[in-house]
Amino acid sequence: MSNPTRTYEPLTSENAALVLVDHQVGLMTGVRDYSIAELKHNVVALAKAAKALKLPIVLTTTARDSMWGPTFPELVEALPGVQIIDRSSVNAFDDPRVAGAIEATGRRKLIFAGLSLEVCAAFPAIAAVGKGLDAYVAVDACGTFSKTKHQVGPAKDDASWRHPVRLRDSYDRDSQRQHSTRGRQGL
Fold first, then answer.
1. Catalytic site includes residue 142
2. Domain holding 84: CATH number?
């Protein structure tokens, strides 16, 4: 359960970081809740918005060289110079390199997106909350392997992590601010 004494603090380019988990070619083939083209568009748009807003970005894969293949090329192209951390753990936060990269951002509000929603996004989000961080999941930049899992999957998990957001909702609090306009350009 979230701490009721904490005051509300909106997402900003100064307090948030983006964590992209397992947007890999092999996992994309199983996505059933979005068309692959729509999901790729959403993930790339989120990445471009984060980049335009100068958010720190952590990008991770699992079993890249064996089971699930590389990060899909459009995402790699959108994030030149961003290191991709390959790991073997199911929960990205269980990998010390990923946890270290997230901690190194110095940000307390983490926006997660992953394939699949109920594992790759939810598990590290739950871990983040356990570490006293705020976790948000960009649900339209997450795919899963059935429409039912997309609808029900997060409901079975610890509700304390869930601040589901849509891409536009994340940064569109004030359309007059310059960074809001820059962040929406890819959306």
1. no
2. 3.40.50.850
